[in-house]
Amino acid sequence: MHIIREPRVTLIARQQFLPPPHIRWQSDSNVAGEALAEFAGRLCYLSFGEDAGLEGGHRTIGGRTTNESYLANILKVKHGSVLEHAVWTFLLEGISRSLTHELVRHRAGMGFSQLSQRYVDESDIGFVVPPEIQDGTPEYDAWVRTCEQTLNGYRELLSGLTEQVGDDGPATMRKKRARQAARAVLPNSAETKIVVTGNARSWRHFVEMRGSGSADVEIRRLAVAVLRALQQEASHIFGDMRIVPQMDGTETVETPYSKV
């Protein structure tokens, strides 16, 4: 039986920014999401700078000189709508079904594609140990025994049902029906995989909400891991969010710009 203790966060997609050729303006950021968010914000007020040129003879004045200072002000004044244009996609693995039950509640600005237990044979599935359960304790032993029992039950059900369910249908349909019935005994700690696409504003909301000290410890651990990846991608958008070590060994997320 595979036991999983840490989530795996893999960036699999980022966007491209194509500056309009009829506007003479260029961001000093090479990060597409940062440049796009800045462009969207500047468009609201036509604040592309004194040297910018627009078709039709319109000219603009003013504008902050750096992407970092511009987006810092966006966060300060909570003009969060411009952050919705910046998008990143992650593959999340090593997380439990219990976690994804909470994750998929973040509907606004997010898209999800999760592994299907109906179509995938879970006979060799892993289990995510809850962070509160420590190795070498009676509680850990009880958790392992329970997972082993459910996995054995799943395998037994799958074997029997594959032979019994829908004998008159195609083999693939029989297997699907057997798996969808057998999955009923798998626990919430069963490992799953999911692709998540979100815009910067939604990612900030997820990290802030699920990175708080009141959040479930497993999803909080994921929020911290996602934040680390996003800070490497776009520090001007996520750099204000701080990862704070706690006395119990866990980490939380804090920001001076809440609910942008």
Uncertain regions spanning at least 5 consecutive residues:
56-62
How would you state the average pLDDT, rounded?
92
Give, in order, the helices and strands: EEHHEHEEHHEHHHEE
Largest sheet: 4 strands, antiparallel
- Choose one word for the global shape: elongated
Beta-strand level of the residues, as a percent range?
A: 15-25%
Give the helix/strand class.
alpha+beta
Summarize the structure.
This protein is an alpha+beta fold and 260 residues long. The chain has helices spanning 32-45, 67-77, 97-103, 138-164, 171-182, 200-210, 217-233, 235-238, and strands at residues 2-4, 8-14, 87-96, 110-114, 126-128, 191-199, 242-245, 251-254. The chain is built from eight helices and eight strands, in the order ββααβαββααβαααββ.
Description:
This protein has 260 residues and is α+β, with helices and mostly antiparallel strands. The protein contains 8 helices and 8 strands. The strands form 3 sheets. The protein has a 4-stranded antiparallel beta sheet with strand order 2-3-6-4. A hairpin with a 5-residue loop joins strand 7 and strand 8. Helix 4 packs antiparallel against helix 5 and helix 6 packs antiparallel against helix 7. The two termini are 43 Å apart.
